[in-house]
Predict the structure of Methylmalonyl-CoA carboxyltransferase 1.3S subunit.
Amino acid sequence: MIRHLRITVDGKAYDVLVEEVTGEQPAAPYAPPSAPVAMAGPVVSAGPAPAPAAFSGAGEAQRAPLAGVVVSVAVKPGDTVVADQEICVLEAMKMKTSIFAFKGGTVTEVLVNAGDAVDSGQPLVTIS
């Protein structure tokens, strides 16, 4: 049975369609409603994904372990870093995650700035 519910998250109301499933009956395949369902709440569009930063390939890339927003960058080109030194901080879902150098060496490039959105696996800095 499809149920129309209103859920409030952080003070914002969202109308959702939920399929009720019980152990006694098999789930019926979803059939869209015959008439449009009015939805309350904001419509969010993330837009196109940002293009990955290009880098020269000098050194090995320290990549983002998760998608998020760069809060701060603690290094600049030419800096010497040691393994496990914090190089930047990412924020995802209101949680800050420190990113640490995977090896010691010299920072050859910084590919992100504070405020940049990054994808998982995107290069952040290069270290040689």
Notes: The two ends are 59 Å apart (CA to CA). The longest strand covers residues 2-9.
